[in-house]
Prior knowledge:
By secondary structure, the chain is of the alpha/beta class. It has helices at about 30-40, 60-70, 85-95, 105-115, 130-135, 155-165, 165-175, and strands at about 5-20, 30, 45, 50, 50-55, 80-85, 100-105, 120, 120-125, 140-150, 180.
Amino acid sequence: ESEAKVVEKLTISLDWIVMIAHKDAPFDNITSQEVVDIYTGKTDNLNGYKINALDKEVGGGTKTNFDKYFDVKGKTSRELIIIAPSGQTIATLAGDPNGLAYLSYGYTEAAIKKGEPIKTLTLDGVAGTPENVESGKYKFSRSLNLVYKKENADLMERIRKILASPEAKQIFEKMGVMSAL
């Protein structure tokens, strides 16, 4: 709120967070309630299958969005395995058939294409695909913004035009995010 007095924001893209598990996990879907129950420590299993839940460190955008989406800020279990970098999350999950984590769609898709033994889960029966994010069916998304001083509005308009170009949109897609321009 205090920053809004001196800065503006330009939403340039949408990113979304997906729940992920080891590729051999015997489930492909997880419900929001199951996520809450696992991450708050109410249970450590899913349909009788032991879960080792990975959590992101406090302060990062992915963790902030996870906590807000599932309303678990300050309620997560102390038993969770805290992981910071996305690469460490992938490596840990790839080595743990009982692992469960959440990560940016783009990072997850890149890891799967590289052959990491992980899979994306549907959340409440909805796949976290670009089409489902764009249609509004998949809700676990966030906007990525450029923040600028109000006196730089002319410069930002030039930047917006560049970022709205077909070439820039291809780069957004290659990075696993969706252009919002």
